[in-house]
Fold this protein.
Amino acid sequence: MQSIIQAENISKRFGEKLLFDNIFVNINEGEKAAIVGLNGTGKTTLLKILAGYENFSEGKISTANDIQIAYLPQYPELNENNTVLEAVFNSDTERVKLIKEYRNAIESQNLELIQKTNEAMDCLQLWDYEYIAKQILTKLSITNFNSKIKTLSGGQKKRVALAAVLIDEADLLILDEPTNHLDLDMIEWLEDYLFQTKSAVLMVTHDRYFLERICNKIIEIDEQKLFTYEGNFSAYLEKRSIRKENLMQSADKAKNLMRTELEWIRRMPKARTHKPKYRIDAFYDLKKAAQNITVDPELRIPVKSERLGKKVLEIENLSMSYGNLSLIKDYSLKINPGEKIGIIGKNGSGKTTFLNLITENITPDKGEIIWGETVKYAYYKQDGISFNDDDKPIDIIKALSENISLSNGKNVSASGFLQLFLFPPALQHAYIKKLSGGEKRRLYLCSILVQRPNVLILDEPTNDLDILTLQVLEQYLYDFSGSVIIVSHDRYFMDKIVDHIFVFEGNGKIKDFPGNYTVYRTQYETPDINKSQPKEKVIKKGTSENITKKLSFRDKYEMEQLDKELTRLNNERNELELMLNSGNLNNNEIQEISQKFADLLKLIDTKELRWLELSDKAEN
């Protein structure tokens, strides 16, 4: 594969802080890569450097000729006075410039320019371009294409910016947290889109299912260095663990050598003068090397929570509407001690409204919310970071508590507690404005848990957190003896934590489902080829010529056979799922049926993809 972008010997400093030193990055044509690492290690900065939006201290960047790069920042800045469509067509690519030129020619009635741009539009197959843009926007739940950007929410602006990046069909897509502000349906659509695109992709994301399915290369920033792993997320975890194990062995070996050399170097000065200088130099080199070998920082959350009684939360006939929009209608529920509930649903279906209702931040139209007497809840808001830029982490935690009780019976100071959350003394005394977005989220989490709650209410807690922090938070929530209510679009996170799902379906309807997200998705949203149309396929570059062809007799016959075969295969899949969930199989039978199930899913994917190709032809 041809390299399309290469960064050699890149270093970056912010003042005295070194983010990375003398690193090398290479992305090939069609490659799907992700950058991972702790918050504050420079993931977003590296994306900006590669996209050309950030300077670097040393090194050089080389790109293939005429390469086109599209960049999605974590917090996009759009022209507030543009409409949605104007914002999508606001790039400097050849296609967008030509479309604008054609529109201007039409408006000015310049016949010569109309003919010229018309021919160029034909050559580049751009007549479906606006349709494709609207199709992508609709998939991202942006349907009013003439809305002004200034009227949109932060999440909607991020989705418009994402659509603008995807429509460009660039050679390299650089995406910073593309799944933030997307609901689960949108995430799965984007996953399919990026899986199928011929563009190379380089992204930062904490969505581990995303990393598992899409990526064939993982790039880790660790201790100012870059480590590249070929393969998806599970391959990365395996190879990384081997590297860390080898590193620990090297550390032990270096320490043993140091002890030997230390005995020699501490001899009397008189004796030392007769020893070769290279031994002295080698000792100091060895000492430096041993000090540079570090173990992964361990983020621990051993917070002691208050005792929780038998009654947690009861809701009776809760209703909430905004004008004609009904979000919750006559809803009643009872949450028990230790229950871990996940809330899912499309954006705008009322998930955050529900959390604001039960925490009494807003008043319902009707209904009653009754908390148990022993409940001490903490509410982690999606937009809840409101620290003053001139504050310091140590002052924020001290204001909440100067002495914190841990689950092991010990007490720690505010400074000691911050160190458990990977805030070393230097970072504790840094100004908030100096922290990365992920470090601010981690501090916010710290400020929530220091209050020792026994009920946790979490609205999108995974946004901007690094994978290590997520893993530890998952373990904490898994062991947490209190009750948890979570709104999250992170499928991996939900699968590991929740044992109950509330599905906000819209129009005030809420479905109660016992189980995690994947079990729910499998049971309730398995596509039935006879009852619903398959997923709409986004038209890709270069296909406009193909889709204008009508189905031949052979195509029609193939499509009819695929209908029958997909029905049979989906029925077989349902039978295997029932067997796997029955609890009546031994280990050998589970392994055998699991393999059959995996092979069957691959076959169904292949058949459905062919069905979609024929369906595209039939509709045109």
